[in-house]
């Protein structure tokens, strides 16, 4: 009897030990698995669920309200496209540093996706310039040729403080790079007549009226205003296609934009004036009056004939 109890006790102890070992193993797996800011990563796909990769670690993330995406290009560089939403780190301190998400390594522009530029061995989101090209060699080393235009790495600040901040033959005017026109050759600003300045060995001045007929005619983040000038614009939330219009703003490069200066927006078309009603025709009674007069005259001519016939009856 005692031996039986001993065997039962040993069996129960073995079962308890096995169960404890099982739960201990499960707990250890969860404890050492991917946790906030602990698990290592090199690309976004290394982080599972609602987490994003930043500085080699996975961090908890939250979806950005009102966003939707099917590819990373539809989210900003401070966000990640996951589960058809744009996500950003939950920690505000990490979110403030969370830039250049999922940058691909590259040695040439061809290693990057379309509309990206290879700078310092990393692929950055680009924006188009007004320089036309047929291949990457037609652009400078920090620009790539996509869709017949040279693209440069997109910068957070598209303004300028000096003429050197502007591309090519553009000039800085009130913090904005504007198109310029060529003038005579020069070595210094003093060689040029005001308001022209010397740049790239030429006296150039801001063009009085850059022409455009649609927003796609304007370079970079500029839009075409009602005076057919390219003026600064800025991105707003939302994307668009030729068949899907923006709720707010206008569509350019499949993104929604608004004019930086609201007064530059084209005026709404005025409704056409309603046509004046045609004059009503005169009453038909007026036309009938001459006919009545002719009938009366005919009756008057017939009366003498009747009088002439009366004497013949007396004979």
UniProtKB/TrEMBL annotation:
Pfam families linked to this entry: DUF7107
Transcription recorded as keyword: no
Biased composition (Acidic residues): 269-315
Cleaved signal peptide residues: 1-20
Keyword Signal tagged: yes
InterPro entries cross-referenced by the UniProt entry: DUF7107
Top-rank lineage group of the source organism: Eukaryota
Domain (DUF7107) ranges: 41-88, 105-152, 160-205, 211-257
Keywords: Signal
Chain segments carrying region Disordered: 263-315
Protein known as: DUF7107 domain-containing protein
Protein species of origin: Trichuris trichiura
